[in-house]
Amino acid sequence: MNSGKSNRDYSALISGELCVDKPKKWHSKARLQLAAYIIVCLLLILLLPNKLWQPELKTVTITLGTLGIWRYSWWFVHVLRSELYQHRRFPQIRANADKVWRDGWRPRHMHFMMTTFRERRETTELVIQSICREVEEAGVPCTLWLGSGDAYDEDIIMTYLRQHAKHLPLEFIMIRQNLSGKRMAIGLVLRAMSRRGIHRDDLIVFMDGDAVLAPGILRKCCPLFENDPELQAVTTNEEVICYGPKWIQSWLTMRFSQRRIAMQSHSMSNKVLTLTGRMSVFRANHLTQYNFIRMLEADHLYHWLWGTFRFLSGDDKSTWYYMLTKDAKMLYVPDALVYTIEEIEGSGVERMTQNFRRWSGNMLRNGTRALKLGPKKIGGFIWWCVMDQRIAMWTMLVSPIVAIGTTLLHDPYYIVWYFIWIAISRMALSLFLFRYSNSVHIEWPFILYFNQLLNAAVKVYCLARLSKQRWTNRGNQSSGNTHTTADRLKDMMATYITTVWVTGLILSVLFYTQLLKFPDIHYY
Question: pTM of the full predicted structure?
Answer without folding.
Answer: 0.91
